[in-house]
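Predict the 3D structure for this chain.
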Amino acid sequence: MEEVEVLVEGGKATAGPPIGPVLGPLGLNVVEVVNKINEITKDFQGMKVPVKIIVDPKTKKYELKVGTPPASALILKKAGIEKGTGDENPVGNITVKDVVDIAKMKKNDLLGKGLKEKAKEIIGTCVSMGITIEGIKPKEMIKKIEEGEFEDFFKD
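Done. Predicted structure below.
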């Protein structure tokens, strides 16, 4: 088995570098692989997405494992801004629904047991980025969630 790891722009992978030159010698249909990568990554347009291509050179069969962009990139996209501040002065705002959506996208990469814990991890990332949630500073939002507010968002 051969493993190829590439970073592609969501929904915009091409047969050119870095994918084509690596897969061509392995005898794969590069266009087919690229089309499949684009199909899987289309929800991450405008973001870099890690993709692992696992190839069996004998059978020419392959498997794709697509990662997710970093939580910070997903937060910035939801907030509609280019970058955070690095301090606590708010530069952007997202909703609780945005937080829950990101937590679901990143579910395999987060440590929290349930959706609520995973959402609090995402909110924790907002602290250092200057992003508020529903206009509330992240640390205050975590308190509100711990006190039982927003429960409807965490029902599976």
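The two ends are 37 Å apart (CA to CA).
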